[in-house]
Amino acid sequence: MLAGSFSAKAYSFFDTVLWIACLNLLWLVFSLAGLGVLGVGPATAAAQILVRRRVRGEAAPLLRSFTVEYGRNFGRGNGLALPVLLAGAALALNWNYFSRSGDLLSQLMAAGAFVAAIFLVAVACHLFPMFARYELPLPQYLLMSSRFALRHLAGTAILLFVTAAVLFASQALPGLIPFFSVGAWLYVTGWLCDRFFTANDESVTGAAGDAAARDAAGTARPAVMAGAPAA
User: Fold this and answer.
1) What secondary structure, in 3-state letters, does 3-50 show?
2) Where are the alpha helices (DSSP H) in the chain?
3) Predicted local confidence at residue 218, as pLDDT
4) What is the pTM of this model?
5) Where are the chain's structural domains?
């Protein structure tokens, strides 16, 4: 029994590793197909949609599904990614400019750009998993991702740690980049965000249920307490 359970877990693990490698390859190919700047957004959107399906246990042909979601979300994916890419480029240029100066004001500006870049990465970690899960007007995704990143700091810290770990591993072993780096980051952040969003939805639903129960109790309370003496 234990041997069978171990074999099943080992098969599931290696199947997931292979799936991540294929996802990584597809993301690179389709990003290049959009000349990089115009391909990153729809490729990331397609990847996160497929990550969520896999997390939910839905089986689908990876190549065909990725191709369909890439084409379907080409415009909206770029609508999400391009503002983030432009903001990231602006922050990088500002940090590079101010960090070269030795005066206090320039160093403060460089530090501010660095902090803003970290927050932008936190928003980006939530952005496409949120796109894969919820139907919102396009501008709302950036707003809601920013709010979620600020309100759930523990989860945001975990996502930033995962991002830093992937960057460190990719720098130490550049051979990971064409096979695992992006795919692993997409899968882990997508899996974590799906858990975070589920917990948040359950919390909101529970709070709404409690509020409804209090409202119902409030309507009944005057009849029960009608004979109570006034304070």
Assistant:
1) HHHHHHHHHHHHHHHHHHHHHHHHHHHHHHHCCCCCCHHHHHHHHHHH
2) 2-33, 40-55, 62-72, 74-99, 104-133, 138-151, 153-172, 182-224
3) 57
4) 0.85
5) 12-203
